[in-house]
Amino acid sequence: MKRIITGIESIDKFTNGFPEGRTLLITGEAGSGKTIFGLQFANSCCLQNLTTAYITTEEDSEDLYLQSNAFNWDLKDCTEKGLLKFVELAQKRAEVTEAEVNVELDSMKGNFTKLLEIIPENCQALIIDNIGSYTAKLTPYEFRNQLDLLVYELKKRNITTLLILDSATSDEFNEIALYSVYGAINLMKRENPYTGRRERVMDIIKVRSTKTPTQFLTYEIGSNGIVINSAIDLQ
Ligand SMILES: Nc1ncnc2c1ncn2[C@@H]1O[C@H](COP(=O)(O)OP(=O)(O)OP(=O)(O)O)[C@@H](O)[C@H]1O
Ligand SMILES: [Mg+2]
Protein backbone atom coordinates (compact mmCIF):
# COMPACT_ATOMS: atom_id res chain seq x y z
CA MET A 1 0.00 0.00 0.00
CA LYS A 2 1.40 3.38 -0.97
CA ARG A 3 1.73 5.77 1.97
CA ILE A 4 1.48 9.54 2.24
CA ILE A 5 3.88 11.41 4.52
CA THR A 6 1.74 13.39 6.99
CA GLY A 7 4.40 15.98 7.83
CA ILE A 8 4.43 15.10 11.54
CA GLU A 9 7.95 13.76 11.53
CA SER A 10 7.91 11.26 14.41
CA ILE A 11 4.64 9.75 13.30
CA ASP A 12 5.93 9.35 9.76
CA LYS A 13 9.10 7.66 10.98
CA PHE A 14 7.13 5.25 13.08
CA THR A 15 4.29 4.47 10.66
CA ASN A 16 5.92 5.20 7.28
CA GLY A 17 3.01 7.51 6.55
CA PHE A 18 -0.74 7.22 6.18
CA PRO A 19 -2.20 4.78 3.60
CA GLU A 20 -3.12 6.42 0.30
CA GLY A 21 -6.79 6.88 -0.54
CA ARG A 22 -7.95 6.38 3.04
CA THR A 23 -9.49 8.75 5.58
CA LEU A 24 -7.80 9.88 8.79
CA LEU A 25 -10.08 11.43 11.41
CA ILE A 26 -8.66 14.21 13.60
CA THR A 27 -10.71 15.13 16.66
CA GLY A 28 -9.92 17.54 19.47
CA GLU A 29 -11.08 20.43 21.58
CA ALA A 30 -10.88 24.11 20.59
CA GLY A 31 -7.28 25.22 20.24
CA SER A 32 -5.86 21.70 20.32
CA GLY A 33 -4.15 22.12 16.95
CA LYS A 34 -6.54 20.46 14.50
CA THR A 35 -6.23 23.21 11.90
CA ILE A 36 -2.46 23.37 12.29
CA PHE A 37 -2.35 19.59 11.79
CA GLY A 38 -4.45 20.12 8.65
CA LEU A 39 -2.17 22.82 7.27
CA GLN A 40 0.94 20.78 8.09
CA PHE A 41 -0.60 17.84 6.22
CA ALA A 42 -1.54 20.08 3.29
CA ASN A 43 2.01 21.41 3.09
CA SER A 44 3.41 17.90 3.25
CA CYS A 45 1.08 16.69 0.48
CA CYS A 46 2.17 19.57 -1.75
CA LEU A 47 5.82 18.71 -1.08
CA GLN A 48 4.96 15.23 -2.35
CA ASN A 49 3.48 16.81 -5.48
CA LEU A 50 -0.07 15.78 -4.70
CA THR A 51 -2.92 17.94 -5.93
CA THR A 52 -4.42 19.06 -2.65
CA ALA A 53 -7.68 20.72 -1.62
CA TYR A 54 -8.46 22.30 1.76
CA ILE A 55 -12.17 22.75 2.46
CA THR A 56 -12.53 25.30 5.24
CA THR A 57 -15.88 25.89 6.92
CA GLU A 58 -14.80 28.34 9.60
CA GLU A 59 -11.73 30.37 8.68
CA ASP A 60 -11.01 32.10 5.39
CA SER A 61 -7.96 31.29 3.32
CA GLU A 62 -6.28 34.58 4.21
CA ASP A 63 -6.10 33.56 7.87
CA LEU A 64 -4.94 30.08 6.93
CA TYR A 65 -2.12 31.49 4.77
CA LEU A 66 -1.12 33.73 7.67
CA GLN A 67 -1.17 30.82 10.10
CA SER A 68 0.95 28.76 7.69
CA ASN A 69 3.46 31.56 7.21
CA ALA A 70 4.08 31.54 10.97
CA PHE A 71 5.49 28.04 10.49
CA ASN A 72 7.32 28.87 7.26
CA TRP A 73 5.00 26.80 5.11
CA ASP A 74 4.63 28.65 1.84
CA LEU A 75 1.10 27.63 0.93
CA LYS A 76 0.69 30.70 -1.29
CA ASP A 77 3.45 29.31 -3.45
CA CYS A 78 1.72 25.89 -3.47
CA THR A 79 -1.48 27.60 -4.63
CA GLU A 80 0.35 29.55 -7.33
CA LYS A 81 1.93 26.32 -8.60
CA GLY A 82 -1.57 24.85 -8.89
CA LEU A 83 -0.94 22.25 -6.21
CA LEU A 84 -3.18 23.61 -3.46
CA LYS A 85 -6.69 24.96 -3.58
CA PHE A 86 -8.63 26.38 -0.65
CA VAL A 87 -12.39 25.89 -0.87
CA GLU A 88 -13.91 28.49 1.42
CA LEU A 89 -17.35 27.59 2.65
CA ALA A 90 -16.97 30.18 5.39
CA GLN A 91 -16.46 32.87 2.76
CA LYS A 92 -19.43 31.66 0.75
CA ARG A 93 -21.61 31.90 3.81
CA ALA A 94 -20.60 35.49 4.36
CA GLU A 95 -21.04 36.58 0.77
CA VAL A 96 -24.38 35.19 -0.33
CA THR A 97 -27.68 36.69 0.66
CA GLU A 98 -29.52 35.49 3.70
CA ALA A 99 -32.01 33.44 1.70
CA GLU A 100 -29.23 31.63 -0.13
CA VAL A 101 -27.38 31.04 3.11
CA ASN A 102 -30.37 29.21 4.48
CA VAL A 103 -30.73 27.01 1.43
CA GLU A 104 -27.08 26.17 1.34
CA LEU A 105 -26.61 25.63 5.04
CA ASP A 106 -29.80 23.66 5.36
CA SER A 107 -29.01 21.30 2.51
CA MET A 108 -25.43 20.83 3.66
CA LYS A 109 -26.44 20.39 7.28
CA GLY A 110 -28.93 17.72 6.39
CA ASN A 111 -26.44 15.95 4.16
CA PHE A 112 -22.69 16.53 4.40
CA THR A 113 -22.00 14.04 1.61
CA LYS A 114 -22.77 17.06 -0.62
CA LEU A 115 -19.19 18.05 0.12
CA LEU A 116 -18.30 15.43 -2.51
CA GLU A 117 -19.77 17.72 -5.15
CA ILE A 118 -17.36 20.56 -4.42
CA ILE A 119 -14.10 18.60 -4.36
CA PRO A 120 -11.95 19.86 -7.23
CA GLU A 121 -11.25 17.48 -10.11
CA ASN A 122 -7.99 15.53 -9.94
CA CYS A 123 -7.83 16.04 -6.18
CA GLN A 124 -5.39 13.57 -4.63
CA ALA A 125 -5.26 14.83 -1.04
CA LEU A 126 -8.05 16.54 0.86
CA ILE A 127 -8.49 18.28 4.19
CA ILE A 128 -12.02 18.94 5.49
CA ASP A 129 -11.90 21.46 8.35
CA ASN A 130 -14.40 21.03 9.99
CA ILE A 131 -17.12 18.50 9.21
CA GLY A 132 -18.74 19.37 12.56
CA SER A 133 -20.13 22.52 10.91
CA TYR A 134 -22.58 20.30 9.02
CA THR A 135 -23.63 17.63 11.48
CA ALA A 136 -25.71 19.60 13.98
CA LYS A 137 -29.15 18.35 13.06
CA LEU A 138 -28.29 14.75 12.27
CA THR A 139 -29.26 11.67 14.22
CA PRO A 140 -26.44 9.23 15.02
CA TYR A 141 -27.89 6.88 12.40
CA GLU A 142 -27.86 9.54 9.68
CA PHE A 143 -24.37 10.63 10.69
CA ARG A 144 -23.03 7.09 10.39
CA ASN A 145 -24.68 6.51 7.00
CA GLN A 146 -23.38 9.78 5.57
CA LEU A 147 -19.89 9.30 6.93
CA ASP A 148 -19.74 5.76 5.54
CA LEU A 149 -20.79 7.06 2.14
CA LEU A 150 -18.31 9.95 2.23
CA VAL A 151 -15.41 7.68 3.22
CA TYR A 152 -16.43 5.09 0.60
CA GLU A 153 -16.58 7.64 -2.22
CA LEU A 154 -13.27 9.22 -1.23
CA LYS A 155 -11.61 5.81 -1.27
CA LYS A 156 -13.13 5.06 -4.67
CA ARG A 157 -11.61 8.30 -5.97
CA ASN A 158 -8.32 7.44 -4.22
CA ILE A 159 -8.31 10.72 -2.30
CA THR A 160 -6.25 10.62 0.89
CA THR A 161 -8.31 12.63 3.37
CA LEU A 162 -7.78 14.34 6.69
CA LEU A 163 -11.22 14.74 8.19
CA ILE A 164 -11.36 17.21 11.07
CA LEU A 165 -14.18 16.97 13.63
CA ASP A 166 -14.37 19.36 16.58
CA SER A 167 -14.95 18.09 20.11
CA ALA A 168 -18.34 19.70 20.54
CA THR A 169 -19.60 17.50 17.74
CA SER A 170 -17.38 14.52 18.28
CA ASP A 171 -18.54 14.05 21.86
CA GLU A 172 -21.81 13.06 20.31
CA PHE A 173 -20.55 11.21 17.23
CA ASN A 174 -16.96 10.28 17.98
CA GLU A 175 -17.59 6.64 18.86
CA ILE A 176 -19.58 6.16 15.67
CA ALA A 177 -17.08 8.02 13.51
CA LEU A 178 -14.22 5.84 14.71
CA TYR A 179 -15.67 2.80 12.98
CA SER A 180 -16.10 4.43 9.60
CA VAL A 181 -12.58 5.73 9.16
CA TYR A 182 -9.26 4.02 8.44
CA GLY A 183 -7.33 5.96 11.06
CA ALA A 184 -8.12 8.25 13.98
CA ILE A 185 -6.10 10.67 16.11
CA ASN A 186 -7.41 12.63 19.08
CA LEU A 187 -5.69 15.85 20.21
CA MET A 188 -6.12 17.01 23.79
CA LYS A 189 -4.69 18.86 26.76
CA ARG A 190 -4.23 17.11 30.08
CA GLU A 191 -2.48 17.66 33.36
CA ASN A 192 0.75 15.75 33.74
CA PRO A 193 0.29 13.84 37.03
CA TYR A 194 4.00 14.16 37.88
CA THR A 195 4.69 17.78 37.07
CA GLY A 196 1.17 19.16 37.58
CA ARG A 197 1.59 21.11 34.34
CA ARG A 198 -0.84 21.04 31.46
CA GLU A 199 0.53 19.55 28.29
CA ARG A 200 -0.68 18.74 24.81
CA VAL A 201 -1.08 15.02 24.13
CA MET A 202 -2.03 13.08 21.05
CA ASP A 203 -3.73 9.70 21.08
CA ILE A 204 -3.27 7.69 17.91
CA ILE A 205 -6.42 5.68 18.41
CA LYS A 206 -5.95 3.49 15.36
CA VAL A 207 -4.48 3.24 11.90
CA ARG A 208 -5.53 0.06 10.14
CA SER A 209 -2.78 -2.12 8.69
CA THR A 210 -0.19 0.03 10.46
CA LYS A 211 1.96 -0.31 13.55
CA THR A 212 1.02 2.55 15.90
CA PRO A 213 2.36 3.58 19.31
CA THR A 214 -0.02 2.76 22.15
CA GLN A 215 1.03 5.45 24.62
CA PHE A 216 -0.12 9.08 24.55
CA LEU A 217 2.37 11.21 22.63
CA THR A 218 3.13 14.62 24.09
CA TYR A 219 3.50 17.31 21.45
CA GLU A 220 4.17 20.99 21.15
CA ILE A 221 3.17 23.61 18.65
CA GLY A 222 6.46 25.31 17.96
CA SER A 223 8.07 27.28 15.18
CA ASN A 224 7.83 24.28 12.83
CA GLY A 225 4.26 23.37 13.65
CA ILE A 226 3.36 20.20 15.53
CA VAL A 227 6.37 18.39 16.97
CA ILE A 228 6.14 15.19 19.02
CA ASN A 229 8.24 15.27 22.20
CA SER A 230 7.79 11.68 23.32
CA ALA A 231 10.23 9.04 22.19
CA ILE A 232 8.26 6.56 20.09
CA ASP A 233 10.36 3.47 20.49
CA LEU A 234 8.11 0.95 22.14
CA GLN A 235 8.41 -1.90 19.64
N1 LIG B 1 2.76 30.37 15.58
C1 LIG B 1 2.39 29.62 16.61
N2 LIG B 1 3.31 29.13 17.45
C2 LIG B 1 2.95 28.37 18.48
N3 LIG B 1 1.69 28.04 18.80
C3 LIG B 1 0.73 28.51 18.00
C4 LIG B 1 1.03 29.31 16.87
N4 LIG B 1 -0.11 29.62 16.26
C5 LIG B 1 -1.09 29.02 16.98
N5 LIG B 1 -0.59 28.37 18.03
C6 LIG B 1 -1.34 27.60 19.03
O1 LIG B 1 -2.23 26.72 18.35
C7 LIG B 1 -3.54 26.89 18.84
C8 LIG B 1 -4.57 26.87 17.75
O2 LIG B 1 -4.42 25.75 16.99
P1 LIG B 1 -5.53 25.42 15.92
O3 LIG B 1 -6.13 26.63 15.33
O4 LIG B 1 -4.95 24.41 15.00
O5 LIG B 1 -6.61 24.72 16.87
P2 LIG B 1 -7.96 24.01 16.46
O6 LIG B 1 -7.97 22.70 17.15
O7 LIG B 1 -8.12 24.04 15.00
O8 LIG B 1 -9.03 24.98 17.16
P3 LIG B 1 -10.56 25.25 16.75
O9 LIG B 1 -11.34 24.07 17.29
O10 LIG B 1 -10.86 26.51 17.46
O11 LIG B 1 -10.62 25.35 15.28
C9 LIG B 1 -3.58 28.26 19.46
O12 LIG B 1 -4.53 28.25 20.50
C10 LIG B 1 -2.19 28.47 19.92
O13 LIG B 1 -2.07 27.94 21.22
MG1 LIG C 1 -9.52 24.85 13.68
Give a concise summary.
The protein is an alpha/beta fold and 235 residues long. Helix content is 37%, strand content 26%.
Q: Which strand-content bin applies to the residues?
A: 25-35%
Quickly count the domains: 1
Residue ranges: pLDDT <50 for 5 or more in a row? none
CATH topology call: Rossmann fold
Topology overview:
Blueprint: E1 3-4, H1 9-15, E2 18-19, E3 23-28, H2 34-47, E4 52-56, H3 61-69, H4 75-80, E5 84-88, H5 89-95, H6 98-110, E6 125-129, H7 140-156, E7 160-166, H8 167-180, E8 183-191, E9 198-207, E10 217-222, E11 225-228
Parallel strand pairs: 3-7, 3-8, 4-5, 4-6, 6-7
Antiparallel strand pairs: 1-2, 8-9, 9-10, 10-11
The protein binds adenosine-5'-triphosphate and magnesium ion (MG).
Characteristic terms for this protein:
235 residues, alpha/beta, Rossmann fold, nine-stranded mixed beta sheet, 8 helices, globular, binds adenosine-5'-triphosphate, binds magnesium ion
